[in-house]
Amino acid sequence: MTNAQDNSFIEPTIQFVIDRIDRQRARQADFPHITKGGKWVYTEDGVWTGGFWTGLQWLAYKETKDEKFLLEAERLTQRLLPRASDEVNHDLGFMFYPTAVVGWRLTGKDEYRAAAVRAAESLAKQFNKDAGFIPGWGFFGGQNWAGSVLIDTLMNLPLLVWAAQNGGSNELLDVVYRHTETALRNHQRKDGSVYHVYVFDEKTGAPMRGDTYQGKAPESAWSRGQGWAVAGLSMLADMTGRAEYVAAAERVAAFIESQLKDSFIPKWDYAVTGDDEPLDSSAGAISAYGLIRLAGVTKNDRYLQLARSILDALSAQCLASSEAESILAHATADLPHGLGIDESTGYGDYYFLKALLALRDATSGKSNTH
Questions:
Q1: What is the sign of the dihedral through the CA atoms of 11, 16, 20 and 23?
Q2: Can you list the alpha helix ranges (DSSP code H) found in 81-198?
Q3: Which one of 9, 179, 201, 287 counts the least CB within 10 Å of its CB?
Q4: Strand pairing partners for 331?
């Protein structure tokens, strides 16, 4: 890392985020999902994004030690706990790692640890043993997704690794290793990029084709998907020590770096080039977090420098206006289906703060937390 002046944006931006979390916390609302016209659309049960807003409360409490954030974090975590038994939900890691796992670490409440282990077991039960993967969404949007594997699922596997180390079965690790092997064998392309979706025969596991749901085209590189890949693989590499995960994460990181030559804020898909194409600040935030985790594993400051450049650009160009309810503007949730275009997302806000805190820790010599 270079001199401290290069990082002068970090502390003021963290404070901006904490202030914005506090302002939204005071509403005592349901779970913010994505914005519409700068205003949050809320969900009652948290769908798949409730863990991000709740996780921001835990991060704010950890950062400030202010009890008001603890109270809100616990209120929302309690509302999510029944979801630990979800039977068709490949996003249980997104829901329970930022909430129950972190809550257990900060409070010692075994109720949280037990719920997180239960969520991990529920996720593992969805594993197709014959085919070697956890499918995506089950039945979603009128389609059968039982043979479809999303790159996003890599981000949910750290919950299984954690659970195996904190009261869960060691068989959870077998699910992690087999699913990741399937993903790396099929999702990752020669240039290091990844398919958003890969479709398999749900009975035999025979690979059929690469595909996408939120990207421009099956063979394009949906930018948030690249972020999920580098972050998920880097976290798994850190938690398991597996060299093949490090190598795969480095290939994704090299692809991301090759795409950010003109701007450090990704467009919604790396295959689009027009100046009028929407950005996806959430892809930048997620990618930055993954790059910082990868720097911690490899001790390669190149990844830290790229993450710093992304976060600096996001801080300069993408903070939500004073009238907005969110943190990070200019995200794109799902352009092909017309959702959240040039808006804000719960995951973008969450990983923005996660990445800022991780960058601060990395540049001050502290180790990143899982």
A1: positive
A2: 92-96, 102-107, 110-125, 158-164, 171-186
A3: 201
A4: 343
Residue written as token pair 């850190």: 238
Query: What is the DSSP code string of 236-272?
Result: HHHHH--HHHHHHHHHHHHHHHHH-SS-SS-BSBTT-
370 within domain boundaries: no
| pLDDT averaged per 10 residues in sequence order, the chain, 370 residues | 68 98 94 95 96 98 98 98 95 98 98 98 97 82 83 98 97 98 98 98 95 97 98 98 98 98 95 95 99 98 98 98 94 97 98 98 75
Owning domain of residue 252: 4-363
β-pair partners for 198: 149, 210
| CATH for 202 | 1.50.10.10
Q: How many domains does the chain have?
A: 1
Residue 368 lies in a domain: no
Q: Is 134 helix (H, G, I), strand (E, B) or coil?
A: coil
Measured CA to CA, the distance from residue 232 to residue 299 in angstroms comes to: 18
Using only C-alpha atoms, the chain has a radius of gyration, in whole angstroms, of 19
Contact indicator for 188, 180 with CB cutoff of 8 Å: no
* DSSP code, position 91: T
